[in-house]
Amino acid sequence: MESNVEKLRKLIKESNNIVFFGGAGVSTESGIPDFRSKDGLYNQKYKYPPEEILSHTFFVNKTEEFYEFYREKLNSLKYEPNITHLKLTELERQGKLKAIITQNIDGLHQKADSKNVLELHGSVFRNYCMKCNKFYDAEFIFSSKGIPRCECGGIIKPDVVLYEESLNDNILRDSITAIQKAELMIVAGTSLTVYPASGLINYFRGQNLVLINRDSTQYDNRANLVINESLGKIFEKL
Fold first, then answer.
1. Whether 56 is catalytic
2. What does the pLDDT profile of the chain (238 residues) look like in tens digits?
3. How many CB atoms neighbour CB 96 within 10 A?
4. Read out DSSP for 146-214?
């Protein structure tokens, strides 16, 4: 591991335009469960499969049951940033890290004070009335009971991308632009199986691609450096 950390440190030192692309593995060391590992959300037992609960159709047809699951499993208010979030903020302040592209909806990058965060799948911290578009914060949603409603009577929906919904075009465009400009792209804590997010790696034209993930991914053969280790251990040594 030491030699890999040294290689990564050298790549970071020599790069002035870095993009970090992260998945659920970035937040697991803060205590937030991921989705696809053996202890992840998708391998727990519910009345409905989590993929079904987190779909647009389910939200529309079974809103109250959606919110039961959402409040119990996706409340990230009590969690704090870990060493990976904090080190990325340092790199951003040094002017090296130009963008953080995340598949996470937990807001921990912003909690760590990172500024240029592109949230592909939205955030639990933004919620809008489907009728009048009034904004509501996460505290309102997670402390409410039943179906959260706006003062106008409309149902409030979290600004998270559910299954069957498309990604935000502006976020997608900004992510592609950042990746195309990057010299070094660090992809971490993601199995790279969720499309279209995983397809973003194909826009990278820079010199060095680094993959950090506990398990191997389908893109390992394209990387200059592959580290199969926990992110926390790697970033602590940086």
1. no
2. 679 999 999 999 999 999 999 999 999 999 998 665 555 555 566 788 888 999 999 999 999 999 999 999 999 999 999 999 999 999 999 999 999 999 999 999 999 999 999 999 999 999 999 999 999 999 999 999 999 999 999 999 999 999 999 999 999 999 999 999 999 999 999 988 888 778 999 999 999 999 999 989 999 999 999 999 999 999 999 8
3. 16
4. SS-B-TTSPBEEEEE--BT-PPPHHHHHHHHHHHHH-SEEEEES--S-STTGGGGGGG--SSEEEEE-S
37 CB burial (10 A radius; 0-12, 13-18, 19+): middle
| CATH for the 1-32+81-121+166-238 domain, from 3.40.980.10, 3.40.640.10, 3.40.50.1220, 3.40.50.300 | 3.40.50.1220
- In the prediction, which pLDDT does 109 show? 98
Q: How far apart are CA 233 and CA 15, in angstroms?
A: 22
- Please, is 72 exposed, middle or buried when counting C-beta atoms within 10 Å of its C-beta (0-12, 13-18, 19+)? exposed
Sign of CA dihedral 41, 42, 45, 51: positive
Q: Which of 56, 85, 109, 121 is catalytic?
A: 121
User: Cis bond leading into 196, ω under 30°?
Assistant: yes
CA nearest neighbour of 70 among 92, 85, 55, 83: 55
In 3-state terms, what secondary structure has residue 215?
Answer: coil
